[in-house]
Specification:
Length: about 280
């Protein structure tokens, strides 16, 4: 009987020894992309997290597709970029998941790439930046913008999106200190070689990356910048109101003083000295 018990205990010990590594491996499974979709494009194959190569068909192959929505299994950041051929014409999109112990890249190749056309369209339709917000909203006239980022963001990846699929604007990737706010210049080049210069002035908001990420995950999210600008902060509004109120009080006291103060001169009193002709 004791021998049987000993055998059972030994088996249990061996099971624990061999099972522990597999449990660790299971708990350290790398993050993956659960789903993804694009504007102006449809993925041809059924998307699954363990497959990393796909083809997509553009609704309009003269316009650049952009990221529409995504879901991630695990904790990771997503960076979207475009792939180009030797002539700097778009051939596809890459979605890169970046996490603590590595990265995973998903490739989406255009099944109907645009026929090269010689035009002067060098306008950007959007600027994608993980945990970044462009202000004012990108339009066809302005070329100078503010790019708001969290206070502790140090890995900055900017993906310009050209309106014309034949145009080209290289992405920007920077490693910053948490107090750096550089000015970034983007050059968008049309198919005919004409260029358009964009400037991005980096501004940091009083929120951490984790706070901004949590806000972005809310279904009603619209902006993480609103309420953080100086003129929108409560202390600024209180200060302005206090100054305005103080000025109003001073003006009221001045008006009252002028009205009730004693006038040292009597307009009905005859002059003491008579002017000499």
């Amino acid at each position: 009987m004791r021998r049987k018990i000993s055998v059972v205990l030994m088996c249990a010990v061996y099971c624990c020894i061999f099972a522990a590594p597999f449990q660790c491996m299971a708990s350290e499974t790398s993050p993956s992309l659960a789903s993804i979709s694009f504007k102006n494009a449809v993925i041809n194959e059924k998307f699954t997290p363990d497959v990393q190569e796909y083809t997509i068909t553009l609704d309009d192959n003269q316009e650049s597709p952009t990221l529409e929505s995504y879901k991630i299994n695990g904790t990771a950041d997503i960076f979207v970029n475009y792939t180009y051929n030797d002539a700097n014409h778009q051939t596809g999109i890459t979605a890169t998941l970046q996490y603590d112990k590595g990265s995973m890249i998903y490739n989406f190749i255009y099944s109907n790439p645009a026929v090269n056309s010689d035009n002067s369209d060098n306008i950007l339709s959007s600027i994608f930046c993980t945990y970044g917000e462009i202000s004012p909203q990108l339009n066809n006239e302005d070329t100078s913008y503010k790019l708001y980022i969290p206070s502790d963001l140090t890995h900055l990846t900017i993906t310009p999106v050209t309106r014309d699929v034949n145009a080209y604007c290289p992405p920007v990737e920077l490693i910053l200190d948490d107090n750096q706010t550089p000015k970034i210049t983007l050059y968008s080049t049309a198919a005919n070689g004409s260029k358009r210069e964009y400037s991005l002035n980096i501004k940091r908001v009083a929120k951490t990356t984790s706070q901004v990420k949590a806000e972005m995950e809310r279904p009603d999210f619209t902006s993480f910048v609103e309420g953080t600008r100086l003129y929108q902060r409560p202390e600024f509004i209180i200060t302005v109101c206090a100054v305005a109120g103080g000025a109003a009080v001073v003006w009221a006291l001045f008006a009252i003083t002028r009205r009730v103060a004693v006038n040292p001169y009597d307009k009905d009193e005859k002059p003491f000295y008579t002017p000499v002709d």
